[in-house]
Each structure stands twice: as C-alpha cells, then as structure tokens.
Q: What sequence folds into this?
C-alpha cells in the first residue's frame, strides 16, 4: 500500500510539471508554441497595447487553465512582470498548479478584506505572480461585475505589465463574459476532438456580444505523428 501511495504522489508531481511545461521544459516544441501565442498577441496590440487578457473555453477540461498558466510563464520569461488571476470562483485550480495556498485571493480583494498587494503570491517562476481565487463566494458573477473588480483590474494594470485571467467556461456561466467586457482582449480555447463546432461558435458569439476584442482561438490536444501536442493560434 505504501508503495502505491508513493507512486500516486509521484504521478501528481509529474502532472503538475507537465502543466507548467513552459517553465520546466522551455525547449519543448509545445513550449515554443506558447511563445508563438504570446508573439501573436503582441502583434495584435499594434494599435493599442494589450495589457490584460481573458482566457475562456466553451466547456470543461479543454485546456484553458493550462494554457493560461503557460502563457503567463512565457510572458514572464520575456522579462515582463506578470499577474495570473484565477477568476474561476466556482472551480479554481491555479493554486494546485503552482502548489500555493488559497486562503486569501481574488474574492478577498473584491470584498475589501484584503488589498491586491496583500493577496498576490510569488510563484517559482521569476516575474510571475499569482492571485488565487480565494474562498469560493455565493455570488461569483456579482463580484466580478462589481466596481471593486474594475478598480482591481486598473490597479493590476498599473502594477504589472500583463494581467491574465483564467475564467470559467463561457457557456456554463456569465463570468467570462463579464470579465471579457472589461479587459483589453480575449482568447478562446478549444480542444481537438472534444469541443463541438456549435459550442465554439456560440462561445465566440457570446464574447462578441460582450464587446470583447477576440484575438482568436487556441486549438490544443491535437495529436501529431510524434505523439506530441501543439497549440494553434488563429484569427477569429
């Protein structure tokens, strides 16, 4: 039994390392694709600098949180001061990915129980900071639509070069739409062989209705011959 538990623990650590691929294996071809996404985002901001991003998906388990974490990492690797915000106030995961505590986070800032500076945590990645979700509230959508959220975003853009929001699936709840309306741009994550075309189109429609600058879509979990995965960034 003891040997089984050890194996399970090792598997968990390995999974976490894979989630932070751009940090743990920066020369991996997939890590290079995250840098390509970063470059394309920067080119998209030729007319107006993009300093805040929402990443969302149409449904669960489509790679949204992994993409958000690795995109934040490659921005930090460029020497920028980056804040990754876990704005999924229903099923947060960022604190697990970065192995940090979640006693204080976004909800504490939005309810004025903490300042942004007090709630932000350092990560193992230089120049990358994390604002976890904090305690799960009974009214996530209302908190994200509050004036305090606008103040937090404004403060975040003043203190950091890039602020990236990991949000819930847009077809499930209104949270991603609410934030997409406030940030500079948004990216839709779709999963090869899983995301249905109609769902992706509906997600795009909702982001457009939110008057968000939708930069494009990231296609993940697309297998290639060598057994690797790649991420594709395309125009909407």
A:
């Amino acid at each position: 039994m003891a040997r089984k538990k050890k194996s399970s623990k090792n598997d968990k650590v390995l999974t976490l390392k894979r989630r932070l691929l751009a940090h743990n294996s920066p020369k991996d071809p997939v890590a290079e694709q995250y840098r390509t996404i970063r470059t394309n985002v920067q080119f998209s901001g030729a007319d107006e600098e993009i300093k805040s991003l929402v990443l969302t998906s149409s449904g669960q388990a489509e790679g949204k949180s992994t993409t958000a974490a690795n995109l934040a990492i490659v921005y930090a690797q460029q020497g920028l001061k980056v804040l990754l915000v876990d704005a999924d106030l229903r099923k947060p995961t960022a604190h697990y990915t970065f192995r940090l505590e979640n006693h204080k986070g976004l909800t504490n800032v939005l309810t004025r129980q903490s300042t942004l500076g007090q709630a932000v945590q350092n990560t193992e990645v230089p120049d990358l900071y994390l604002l976890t979700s904090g305690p799960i509230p009974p009214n996530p959508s209302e908190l994200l639509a509050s004036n305090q959220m606008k103040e937090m975003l404004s403060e975040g853009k003043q203190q950091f070069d890039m602020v990236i929001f990991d949000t819930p699936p847009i077809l499930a709840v209104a949270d991603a739409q609410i934030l997409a309306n406030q940030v500079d741009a948004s990216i839709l994550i779709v999963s090869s062989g899983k995301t249905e075309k109609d769902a992706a189109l509906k997600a795009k429609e909702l982001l457009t209705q939110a008057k968000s600058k939708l930069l494009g879509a990231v296609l993940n979990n697309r297998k290639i011959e060598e057994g690797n995965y790649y991420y594709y960034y395309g125009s909407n």
